């Protein structure tokens, strides 16, 4: 049917297929679902764009800069900072180099001492200037232990880093590897957080353009150079499994599959904007289950034209709508009773855990001749990791097809 069959039309599988196709290899992607994207999907509900779980793209991802056309995505940016609820109001906390007008408010924000803020600035400058290899060579610990060992106080960890990173790592104990934290922080310093005007679905849709993707075609059994998909045996010179980690583990017995992090995201429509800024809102006092919330339409009005769409995420604790609504009233300081609940997405396998020891960041993509695997569970748990993993798998396949050695 093709030189190579890729199982899964998520970012990793599509990136792999595009690279192989650009090298002149005939590729077919088989996808069990009804659309491309894997975990990155966007539903249209009553004229609104609802991403399946709050997700953002980072323009600082090097691989994304190489394989995506950012201009065509019409990216809508969030503020380079956050609104942190402490006491009776929201405090602006941002990088003064990115948002100079926030500098006075950041200096006065009750998230830690002046020393803490100087240390955060130094940490950001160091992360932005160092290469990924240099950051990965640093001693590894949990993110919590790394922050404390770098001189940051318990106050700034609890009031800023913990609520902010909970929404990134999908865990609130900061047990994620310090090496992954350093890579993530580097991307925040060097790039902007944004969403495409057409929803996060625009990323996989762009990658899928011109690729032979067969939807509603679930893979049932996989082995080197062949697989059974939708009841039919398919043969190829190589098979690449680019499914999400749990599905990859099912198709490839013995594959090391990391623990998965979950998240529940609620969408509400508010009659009035609870805040005017396109900024993430955090709870510096951790008084409820919501780890982050944002008025999406402040950044991307196209998500709900003429309306105010609020996205709020929970990673642990009571994620029931009444509990979330009550916490949002506290966070925004407004009456949320008139808010309309639009939808809730409970994503059980949202992100692979990156708890230490990470060991080798880039896990092998070549399992045996004719059989490969890729996905963010083989690299960093991010859009960057998925795209890099897809490229690595494609390069390993190309090396095999050409009969040249390759360190996969």
UniProtKB/TrEMBL annotation:
InterPro entries: Amino_oxidase, FAD/NAD-bd_sf. Residues 11-398 form the Amine oxidase domain. GO terms for molecular function: oxidoreductase activity. It holds the Pfam family Amino_oxidase. This is Oxidoreductase. It comes from uncultured Frankineae bacterium.
């Amino acid at each position: 049917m093709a030189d190579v069959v890729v199982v899964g039309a998520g970012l990793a599988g599509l990136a792999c297929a595009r690279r192989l196709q650009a090298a002149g290899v005939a590729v077919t992607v088989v996808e069990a679902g009804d659309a491309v994207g894997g975990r990155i999907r966007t539903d249209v509900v009553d004229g609104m764009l609802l991403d399946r779980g709050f997700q953002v793209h980072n323009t600082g991802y090097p691989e994304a800069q190489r394989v995506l056309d950012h201009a065509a995505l019409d990216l809508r940016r969030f503020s380079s900072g956050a609104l942190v609820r402490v006491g009776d109001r929201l405090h602006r906390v941002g990088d003064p180099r990115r948002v100079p007008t926030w500098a006075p408010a950041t200096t006065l924000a009750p998230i830690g001492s002046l020393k803490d803020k100087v240390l955060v600035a130094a940490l950001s400058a160091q992360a932005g200037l160092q290469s990924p290899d240099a950051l990965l060579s640093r001693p590894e610990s949990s993110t919590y232990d790394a922050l404390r060992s770098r001189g940051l106080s318990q106050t700034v960890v609890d009031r800023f880093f913990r609520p902010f990173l909970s929404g990134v790592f999908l865990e609130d104990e900061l047990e994620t590897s310090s090496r992954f934290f350093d890579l993530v922080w580097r991307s925040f310093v060097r790039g902007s957080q944004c969403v495409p005007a057409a929803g996060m679905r625009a990323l996989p849709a762009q990658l899928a353009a011109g690729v032979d993707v067969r939807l509603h075609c679930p893979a049932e059994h996989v082995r080197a150079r062949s697989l059974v998909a939708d009841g039919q045996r398919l043969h190829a010179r190589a098979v690449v499994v680019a499914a999400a980690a749990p599905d990859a583990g099912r198709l490839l017995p013995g594959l090391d599959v990391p623990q998965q992090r979950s998240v529940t995201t609620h969408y509400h429509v508010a009659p009035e904007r609870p805040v005017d800024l396109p900024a993430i809102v955090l709870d510096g006092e951790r008084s409820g289950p919501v780890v982050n919330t944002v008025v999406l339409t402040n950044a991307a009005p196209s998500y709900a034209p003429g309306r105010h769409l609020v996205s709020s995420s929970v990673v642990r604790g009571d994620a029931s709508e009444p509990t979330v609504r009550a916490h949002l009233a506290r966070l925004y300081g407004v009456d949320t009773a008139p808010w309309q609940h639009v939808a809730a997405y409970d994503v059980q396998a949202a992100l692979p855990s990156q708890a230490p020891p990470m060991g080798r960041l880039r896990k092998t993509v070549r399992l045996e001749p004719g059989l490969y695997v890729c996905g963010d569970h083989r690299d960093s748990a991010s859009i960057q990791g998925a795209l890099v993993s897809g490229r690595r798998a494609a390069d390993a396949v190309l090396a095999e097809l050409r009969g040249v050695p390759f360190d996969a």
